[in-house]
Amino acid sequence: MHKLSDLNKQTSSRRSFLKTSSAAVVGTTIAANLNVIPSAYAAGSDTINVALIGCGGRGTGAAKNVLDAAPGVKLIAMADLFKDRLDQSRVTLKPLGDKVDVSDDRCFVGFDAYEKALALKDVNYVILATPPGFRPQHLKASVAAGKHTFAEKPIAVDGPGVRTCLAVAEDAKAKGIGVAAGTQNRHKTGYLQTMKLIHDGAIGPVLAARCYFNTGTLWMFPREPNWSDAEWQMRNWYYFTYLSGDHIVEQHVHQLDAINWALGSHPVSANGMGGRQARTDPAYGHIYDHFTIDYEYENDVHVTSMSRQMANCDKKIAEVFIGAKGTARIDSYTRYSITGQKNWRFTEEDNDPYVQEHTDLIESIRAGKPLNELKSVAESTLTGIMGRMSAYTGRLVTWEQALNSKEALMPAKLTWGPMPVPAIAIPGQTELV
């Protein structure tokens, strides 16, 4: 749990860290901890050498963020399924100058590209930003290779994937390997202060909550004649549940993470509905375009979750927490307030959490106390998965059912070639596995 005192220390630490050379920050602490942190630094230096695995828009953005996060950071390797995406990312990152030092022989393409990047001994910090279906496999390999890892959210698309990541979280903890996740709001000043107040009882016990991620439509790449089934699906990964988890998992995970954070637990069950009403063209794969889920937490606390991706509809991104003494609201990631017995509004300048999450991970590594956020993001990911499972099947789904589900969506082996599109889920007909 983040505390306001921790926030003040974090802000102060970051300012002093950015004003001080890396060598001065590291001091004797690193020397004392090198023996317990595998691959902490490259060739005896304190340089953070980054490999980017997944060179799409989010991966490229994350690479920029980590290079802005602290001194002594370099991008030295890149990997992606597609050469054109990797090449485009290299062009985008080129203006960052000597912070990017990626030679042609450190650019890897294909399904095994991640293995080649992880095999580089001087890489000690890895960004995983491929489609979420690959995340459990890549996380397991990255931690096994002794690399500190930043994993974009969500970290899985099904119960088996979440179980893998929970085991990886324990492995990373035992090895002293840092793992941060793309739930960046946990590193954002406004969120940190709001959650601190909630946890300190400013609104009293939380009796109910609501969360929303209602947006418009997203990108889609029309199929080209030379694309195989697999290439078409990989390039449009968002619209295939085995790659994205559906948008309740891939996108709405941020709001579900905030709910779990505020309540200090995960839901015990989910009872929901959803469908594919507006985005019906086969070009959009087989995912839904709207969900509404009733999540039940301990003590009969219910949370209403709404997520929608439709054009020409009202948009809303928010979390609302109703307590016995007041109500806390977070709107569009920018406005934070409490009304009730104690009114409060966040008036400070907010930080850039996309940079801060890397700053926090790097500082923790250099201090010999690496962060490990994998369990919390695994639970938030499973919260989305159980909501999807309920909507797809029309059945109430418990936490244990979702966690222990045998439904493995990601194929064991992927190749370029034919790949049938999974059937669109129909509540009352699709089985709960």
Task: Give an overview of the whole structure.
With 433 residues, the protein is of the alpha/beta class. Helices cover 37% and strands 20% of the residues. It has a nine-stranded mixed beta sheet with strand order 14-13-12-11-7-10-9-8-15. A six-stranded parallel beta sheet has the order 3-2-1-4-5-6, with helices on both faces. The longest helix is centred in the last third of the chain and has 20 residues. It is globular.
What is this structure's SSE topology?
Blueprint: H1 4-19, H2 22-33, E1 48-53, H3 57-69, E2 73-80, H4 83-93, E3 107-109, H5 113-118, E4 125-128, H6 135-144, E5 148-151, H7 159-175, E6 179-181, H8 189-199, E7 206-215, H9 229-235, H10 241-244, H11 247-250, H12 253-263, E8 269-275, E9 290-297, E10 301-309, E11 316-323, E12 326-331, E13 335-340, E14 344-345, H13 353-366, H14 374-393, E15 397-398, H15 399-403
Parallel strand pairs: 1-2, 1-4, 2-3, 4-5, 5-6, 7-10
Antiparallel strand pairs: 7-11, 8-9, 8-15, 9-10, 11-12, 12-13, 13-14
Helix pairs in contact: 3-13, 6-7, 7-14, 12-14
Features:
Dihydrodipicolinate Reductase, domain 2; Rossmann fold; disordered N terminus; 433 residues; 6-stranded parallel β-sheet; 2 domains; 15 strands; 9-stranded mixed β-sheet; alpha/beta
